[in-house]
Amino acid sequence: MRPLEISAAVLAGGYSTRMGRDKATLSFGDGTLLSHQIRKLKSLGVDEVLISGTADGIPDVYPHRGPLSGIHACLKQAKHDAVLFLSVDAPLVPPETLLSLIDAHKSGITLLEHGGEIEPLMGVYDRALAETCESILQTERTSVRRLLDQAAVRTVPYTGDSMLLMNCNTPEAYQKLLNANRPSFS
Fold first, then answer.
1. Which of 164, 7, 11, 167 lies closest to 86 in space, CA to CA?
2. Which of 84, 66, 39 is nearest to 139 (CA)?
3. Contact 173, 129 (CB under 8 A)
4. Cα torsion angle, 152, 123, 16, 137, sign
5. In this structure, are residues 90 and 167 in contact, taking their beta carbons and an 8 Å threshold?
6. DSSP 3-state of 76
7. Could you tell me which of 138, 170, 184, 173 has the C-alpha nearest to residue 18?
8. Radius of gyration, alpha carbons of the chain
9. What pLDDT does residue 1 have?
10. Longest C-alpha distance within the chain, in Å?
11. What span, in angstroms and rounded, lies between the C-alpha atoms of 28 and 91?
């Protein structure tokens, strides 16, 4: 398989206050949530996988400012012009769904849409948006939604099983995730 001309990043930061412990290190399959997401992204043919929010990953330039800070840090470090972002706590997202985001991306931001809602932590962002992220991060309101308001956003409809988009923010959601029938990839 020829490597895709795109970088990828796993957003693994945050305080995990509802979970009570670091979500990236939770057991999943034959490893952790983080190792599972890295393997999935590499299975797509992505040659660069960046990690945001872990001790060994890319540090936030603007710490404690939410997911936009991790997006910003990864955009600044990426070697390709676009970066596929995936949150660490949504391990059931099918690889085919991620490929559909990559295929649909032309410029700006391309996000997954499901049930009329967009998934801002499952999408492709142009590396050039790092400057816009930085200007937002220098303010008090640092949500990813502010970036979406300032960029060209394309959406890709997701019509598959909504269970596959589930993220685990609580111990109960994590248990539900473990009980789910996980799709495989190689």
1. 11
2. 66
3. no
4. negative
5. yes
6. helix
7. 170
8. 15
9. 46
10. 44
11. 9
- The C-alpha atoms of residue 59 and residue 69 are separated, in whole angstroms, by 9
Could you tell me if 94 and 137 are in contact, meaning their C-beta atoms sit under 8 angstroms apart?
no
pLDDT digits (tens, 9 = 90+) for 31-42: 999 999 999 999
Give the ranges where the chain is alpha helix by DSSP (H): 33-43, 67-77, 95-104, 130-137, 144-150, 171-179
Read off the pTM: 0.93
Q: What is the pLDDT of residue 184?
A: 56
Residues 6+ apart with CB under 8 A from 33: 23, 24, 25, 26, 88, 89, 91, 168
Q: Which residues fall within 8 angstroms of residue 83, CB to CB, at 6 or more apart?
A: 6, 7, 8, 9, 50, 74, 75, 124, 125, 127
Long-range pairs of 25-32 with CB within 8 A, sequence gap ≥ 24: 26/168, 26/174, 28/91, 28/177, 28/178, 29/182
Q: If you average pLDDT over residues 50-70, what whole number do you get?
A: 92
Apex 20 CA angle, 138 and 142, nearest 5: 15
Is residue 108 within 8 Å of residue 151, measured between CB atoms?
A: yes
Structure token pair of residue 139: 């303010």
Q: For 148, list phi and psi in degrees, rounded to 5.
A: -60, -35
